[in-house]
Amino acid sequence: MTQGQIKDLRVIVGEEDCFEDKAHLSAYCYDATKERKYPECVVFPHNEEEVSRILQYCNTHKIPIVPRGAGSGFTGGALAVNGGVVLALEKHMNQILEIDMENMVARVQPGVVNMQLQKAVEAVGLFYPPDPASEHYSTLGGNVSENAGGMRAAKYGITKDFVMALRAVLPNGDIIRAGKKTIKDVAGYNIAGILIASEGTLGVITEITLKLLSKPKYTKSAMGVFPSIQSAMNAVYKTMASGVTPVAMEFLDNLTIRAVEEKFHKGLPKEAGAILITEVDGNLEEEIAYQIQKVQEKFYENGASEFIVSSNQEEAANLWFARKNASPSITIYGSKKLNEDITVPRSKLPELLERISEVSKKYDVVIPCFGHTGDGNVHTNVMVDGSKEEELKKGYEAIEEIFKITVELGGTLSGEHGIGLSKAPFMNLAFSQEEMNLFRAIKKAFDPNNILNPGKMAL
């Protein structure tokens, strides 16, 4: 970019919201992958109109532009791989515009933090279920762009299941509305559906209309201890097929259990093959009691040696502690974590995890696993010494084999983290050439000059 171009952008947003200094470029050059790709300037738009003017300008001058929320993504989706502009939406475009009690929807700007919306709607008796692990800092614009999931996805689904409408700016500056507040809408193509999970490659989301639910009155958590991964995974899909749908069904394997116990000393069963942590909710105490009884029955039928039920919020928090602290704990196994969020049909979970164990032995790498087994989403973590090139090579070879196994079992490369940069080289494992050509044609239709988040998803 030229100094003249940066000056022109400064005219659009003001002197105080366009930066090219080292501090800002460094602060906006990375995400949770810890990879670094430096932009040439960082711009903080105030509103949709400014977003439109910025995109129109960048399109005219063929300047790459990367939309960014909190930068909490795990696949490099918000990295400026070709330099250009980072369009940072968290500073000014961060307002809850409306909580519509009658229609049970919320309208928000993309920079609103997920937990901010959860708290605001719960204060009036409503409920926004999608709860990614990053809920305390990730933005809703990022959640939509990556189609974020979370622990409650087993019962309530993921972000796409709650998006009713979007406003977005196309790369040429055109402003569009996709979807409506209405429950039913089959007029025209589902453009909102195309924008969801597009990782900022097709348009910049400027407003989101989200479906809300009434907040359940009661919740209860429980933990089952299992002798093996296979018995725990069998319990997952047998429970889900029993007529009870837990809010969450999370698991930790033995490696993860040991890591959490070594780091936090919570009294976890270190010899267990796996633990399952679950939660049910409802509006009647009798309903809660029935669900817990049914879960307990299925757990014991499938080999559980212990079943612990919380009696209050403090006990529930203790049960969930291990799952919520699994990711930082497993760093005891290596300085670099190659973290993937593969997803398979629930019935394939036992085979998936058995084959991951075989991959671990084949490549002589430690692979602790945990995740959202209620929806078949497993976080596999190939742990290596990041300073040793040979270990990194083995780690990436193990990841590629795990991806191949996942696709073979009818699964997908990513359940919630997206493709971004890190998984782009593996897209050909999951999609045919014809399908990739279709993706590229869609990208070309929206963004013929390829200015918007170029290089992501192998597009």
Structure write-up:
- There is one protein chain.
- By secondary structure, the protein is of the alpha+beta class.
- It has four domains: 3-91, Uridine Diphospho-n-acetylenolpyruvylglucosamine Reductase, domain 2 (2-Layer Sandwich); 96-214, Uridine Diphospho-n-acetylenolpyruvylglucosamine Reductase, domain 3 (2-Layer Sandwich); 218-327, Alpha-Beta Plaits (2-Layer Sandwich); 334-430, 2-Layer Sandwich (Alpha-Beta Plaits), CATH 3.30.70.
- It is 36% helix and 20% strand.
- The protein is built from 16 helices and 18 strands.
- It has helices spanning 3-13, 22-27, 48-60, 114-122, 140-146, 153-156, 191-195, 229-240, 254-264, 285-301, 313-324, 326-329, 349-363, 389-408, 427-430, 433-446; strands at 18-19, 41-43, 65-68, 85-88, 96-100, 105-108, 126-127, 163-169, 175-179, 204-211, 213-214, 218-226, 248-253, 274-282, 306-309, 336-343, 369-372, 377-384.
- Strands 15-12-14-13-17-18-16 form a seven-stranded antiparallel β-sheet, sandwiched between helices. The chain has a five-stranded antiparallel β-sheet with strand order 5-6-10-8-9. A four-stranded mixed β-sheet has the order 1-2-4-3.
- Helix 8 crosses helix 10 (285-301), helix 8 packs antiparallel against helix 13 and helix 13 (349-363) packs antiparallel against helix 14 (389-408).
- It is globular.
